[in-house]
Design brief:
The protein has about 375 residues and is α/β, with parallel strands linked by helices. Helix content is about 45%, strand content about 15%. α3 (about 45-55) packs across α11 (about 270-285) and α7 runs parallel beside α8. Bound molecules: pyridoxal-5'-phosphate (PLP).
């Protein structure tokens, strides 16, 4: 069979490969400490589940508008206004099957062969693949631990060409956990405006911030920045709703309309009763977010202190999300060899940095219980000392 050429250009997810090996080992009864999770380890809040159950009982089981339930689009517009100072109407918002799907819709609606999309590395592994599926060219800009894994305004300016259409910004970041300060966001916005390109801001971790770090949405910097901004967000990380598949994209009317047309021919509406859960998540108490954050704060403190005692490992202090991105270059190993051996010899699952465009690093997620974290780090320590 001759598959479409676009398939050959796309790399299968590496994170899933290590994850499935770890799961297979667990199924065999091996005691694996897994740091590979890309999702919070909490249950969805009860009031969200109750709202979805009620929606089911009320017969919200039929096709709905492709763009999403009007009530949810309104609730999202209100959230963006209150939390992020972004002035969107219902028409500027599409409800999608998760934040991943919102970005995919965006790439399909905006990017075509010849278009360049700037992606700072380390990056969330789906960004370049989505650009390639849309026929565009991902342009990767490497950042360093010394710069906190942040792209500088000069780096961005120097990378922009007449073909540049879009800049992908992800703060707080997966995989590094770094957060751009409001001043850094303003400086990047200036480059976006002077070059007249578009920026997509993936704000899925906006609620998971530490040590007083602040999240400023690039669209809130000025009217000129707002015109060039597209917001991607979702319910997966803030409300521990990864399996629900509800996310959204907000942006200029013409673009959102185009994504609705595409979505209407692909998936149609997001699961109707799941959308009612999402409405409840936005409209009711936000205490859950704080409770989750309180757990992450303790784990992050422990994990950072413990890593600092292990020779040949280093990581910058992450200000957001629930990951630590550890530099392993002093071990002389590639990230895949490191993660494979760590799993085989010490039963610890971590994600190789090469999946995120940084082969000198590995990613540990602390969206897991303290016992796993303590035992896993003891084993990591043992592993590194044995090299
Ligand atoms: C988890 C994640 C998303 C979206 O996930 P969904 O489950 O599709 O909502 C988007 N961007 C980043 C960086 C993520 O880590």
């Amino acid at each position: 069979m001759k598959l479409a050429s676009r398939v050959g250009q796309v790399t299968p997810s590496l994170t899933l490969a290590i994850d499935s090996k770890a799961k297979a080992m667990k199924a065999e009864g091996i005691d694996v400490c897994s740091f590979s999770a890309g999702e919070p380890d909490f249950d969805t809040p009860q009031h969200v589940k109750d709202a979805a159950k009620l929606a089911l009982d009320q017969g919200k089981t039929r096709y709905g508008p492709a763009a999403g339930e009007p009530k949810l689009r309104d609730a999202i517009a209100k959230k963006l206004q209150n939390d992020n100072h972004l002035n969107y109407q219902r028409e500027n918002i599409i409800v999608t099957n998760g934040g991943k799907h919102s970005l995919f819709n965006l790439m399909l609606a905006l990017i075509e062969p010849g278009d360049e999309v700037i992606i700072p590395a380390p990056f969330w592994l789906s960004y370049p693949e989505m650009v390639k599926i849309a026929g565009g060219t991902p342009v990767i800009v490497n950042t360093t631990q010394a710069s906190g894994y942040k792209i500088t305004p000069d780096q961005l300016r120097q990378t922009i060409t007449p073909q540049t259409k879009l800049f992908v910004l992800n703060s707080p970041s997966n995989p590094t956990g770094m957060v751009y300060s409001p001043d850094e966001i303003r400086a990047l916005a200036e480059v976006v405006i002077e070059s007249d390109i578009l920026v997509v801001s993936d704000e899925i971790y906006e609620k998971i911030l530490y040590d007083g770090a602040e999240h400023l949405s690039i669209g809130a910097v000025s009217e000129e920045a707002f015109k060039r901004t597209i917001i991607s967000n979702g319910f997966a990380k803030a409300y521990s709703m990864t399996g629900w598949r509800v996310g959204y994209l907000a942006g200029p009317l013409e673009l959102i309309k185009a994504t609705i047309t595409i979505q209407s021919h692909a998936t149609s509406n997001v699961c109707t009763f799941a959308q009612y859960g999402a409405i409840a998540a936005l409209e009711n108490s936000q205490d859950f977010v704080q409770q989750m954050l309180d757990a992450f704060i303790g784990r992050r403190k422990f994990i950072l202190e413990r890593i600092s005692t292990i020779p040949n490992l280093s990581c910058p202090k992450p200000d957001g999300a629930f990951y630590v991105f550890i530099d392993i270059s002093k071990t002389g190993m590639t990230s895949i060899d490191f993660c494979k051996e760590l799993l085989e010899k010490q039963n610890v699952a971590a994600v190789p940095g090469v999946a995120f465009g940084a082969d000198q690093c590995i990613r540990l997620s602390y969206a897991t219980d303290m016992t796993t974290i303590e035992t896993g780090l003891d084993r990591l320590d043992k592993f590194v000392r044995s090299l």
